[in-house]
Hints:
Blueprint: E1 48-52, E2 58-62, E3 74-79, E4 82-90, H1 93-102, E5 112-117, H2 120-131, H3 133-146, E6 152-158, E7 164-170, H4 178-188, E8 191-196, H5 199-206, H6 217-220, H7 230-235, H8 242-245, H9 260-267, E9 277-279, E10 282-290, E11 295-300, E12 308-311, H10 313-324, H11 359-375
Parallel strand pairs: 2-5, 7-8
Antiparallel strand pairs: 1-2, 1-4, 3-4, 3-5, 6-7, 9-10, 10-11, 11-12
Helix pairs in contact: 3-4
Amino acid sequence: MGCSNCASGVPKGCKSNGACLSGGCEKLEVYDWLSNVSMPNGYSQYDIVEVRFKNSRKEFFRNTKKLSLHVGDVLVVDAEKGFDIGVVSVVGELARIQVEKKAPKQSLKEIKKIRGIANQKEIDQWVKARSLEKEVMYKSRTLAVNLGLEMKISDVEYQADVSKATFFYTANGRVDFRQLIKDLAAEFKVRIEMRQIGARQESAKLGGIGSCGRELCCSTWLTDFRSVSTSAARYQQLSLNPQKLAGQCGKLKCCLNYELDSYLDALKTFPKSSTKLKTEKGRAVHIKTDVFKQEMWYGYEDDISLGLFSLKPNRVREIIRLNKEGKKPKDLKGFLEVEETKELDYTNVVGQDSLTRFEHAFKKRKKKRKNVKRKG
């Protein structure tokens, strides 16, 4: 049976029905690189822990009862008008770093408390609540279509005590779902909360395989969604094709930002592409830049049929310097760097014979056959 806590549906082999204490098959798993560091004498452990719920939702809770908690423990925590169940993802000093990074202005009074470690009865109730979510999502979509609402309900999350259901939806504009909330409450007999999410958050919840062949970054390790602009593709000399640049969410791929800083640093060593090179044959404009080969391609503005010329950055700077001095080179061909071709001083390196080594034998056989036919 698949681990019901990670919502992947992939068999993991633990057969713990979502209550495994290893935490090894969860989404957005966190490696505690401070786990082997012992605490100083007289220094108590940080009393706030990070708890992971369905998909990528994480919250901070206070360990007021001084429980000995470890990553992967299943906890019962306070929730709105009830309780919820989650899995510990970060403890100790790493949790302190996470709090300072994600919720620096959150006061201790606002942080909810941990009730205790979940027992088997509470875990069974939690698993039962999770099993209801799929059917509820399909029925809620039908109700939304019947009301003519332009929205897409992408996920449903039940509270562990089955007293509340949160519906995550995407929509292009504002949606009046007051009647939908009444219908959902009457149908499922629980408190309803509607939460709008973006296209990137929807892809993170649903998951999938990207064009690179790996699982989506947003559903495995990416926690923040930074804005991605088309300028990132321009700096990396990529084709501005929406079908190639867009991910499964329909937005620009997040991975366009991964190597952007490296390209920006490399482009600082190149002359400005907006500068036109003046020659006696005419002005040459910049066409493209190959960052890896350290080449800049130029073509004549008036007659592009003369072809493109690959110049090294230092040669381009030399032409710009001449232009500033009021001089014009004859053409761009004189600035091309021709690679010297070295003659090979070896033959038959891997022991291969000539492809024509049998041709003379075939010719002799053909001549013999012709002579025999003539005599016959």
